[in-house]
């Protein structure tokens, strides 16, 4: 029943990427949001993905990037984009604490969106990062986070009105 409600909700809202709010199916304590960032010309999405693990209160940051000729979409791990001295990493290196993840985004009918999420674009209804759990579990044996291989579902859209952020659907 919960899954049907999520699917109906995802089909009913069209949301900008930077306003989208997601929860991991079967573990809603793991959430995802996009934050607008000045990521420079090397990272054209102009958003960073925050994946937050509620049980440990840890957040991992990622920058979307297009795989080019390999026809895959990805996200590259980066340091905390909310820090005042944050700068995007070089596309050829730089701080990437957890490396890269393959990203698969779909619309509400599970049709694959063959592009990365971009600031101002329409948010995917569902997102899958097949190796997220592996990356967050094995990157540091003292700081482990577990995530099942499952979709993030769009659960809400925070619209900005007159400078205030208002959650439309939750």
Q: Explain this structure to me?
A:
With 170 residues, this protein is mainly beta. It has one domain (2-167). The protein is 11% helix and 37% strand. It has two helices and ten strands, in the order H-E-E-E-E-E-E-E-E-H-E-E. The protein has helices at 2-12, 132-138; strands at 20-24, 27-36, 47-53, 58-66, 73-78, 100-106, 112-113, 126-128, 152-161, 164-167. It has an eight-stranded antiparallel β-barrel. A hairpin with a 6-residue loop joins strand 4 and strand 5. Mean pLDDT is 86; it is low at 161-170.
Walk me through the topology.
Elements: H1 2-12, E1 20-24, E2 27-36, E3 47-53, E4 58-66, E5 73-78, E6 100-106, E7 112-113, E8 126-128, H2 132-138, E9 152-161, E10 164-167
Antiparallel strand pairs: 1-2, 1-9, 2-3, 3-4, 4-5, 5-6, 6-7, 6-8, 8-9, 9-10
Give the gist of this structure:
Helices cover 11% and strands 37% of the residues. The protein is mainly beta and 170 residues long. It has one domain.
């Amino acid at each position: 029943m919960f899954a049907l409600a999520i699917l109906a909700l995802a089909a009913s809202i069209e949301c900008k990427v930077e306003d989208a709010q997601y929860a991991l199916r079967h573990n809603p304590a793991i959430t995802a949001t996009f934050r607008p960032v000045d990521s420079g010309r090397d990272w054209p999405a102009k958003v960073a993905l925050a994946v937050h693990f509620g049980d440990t209160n840890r957040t991992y940051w990622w920058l979307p990037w297009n795989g080019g000729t390999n026809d895959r979409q990805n996200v590259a791990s980066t340091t905390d984009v909310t820090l005042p001295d944050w700068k995007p990493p070089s596309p050829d290196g730089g701080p990437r604490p957890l490396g890269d993840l393959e990203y698969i985004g779909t619309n509400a009918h599970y049709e694959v969106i063959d592009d990365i999420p971009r600031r101002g674009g329409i948010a995917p209804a569902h997102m899958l990062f097949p190796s997220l759990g592996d990356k967050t579990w094995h990157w540091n044996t003292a700081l482990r986070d577990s995530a099942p291989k499952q979709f993030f579902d769009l659960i809400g859209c925070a619209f900005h009105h007159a400078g205030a952020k208002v959650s439309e659907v939750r």
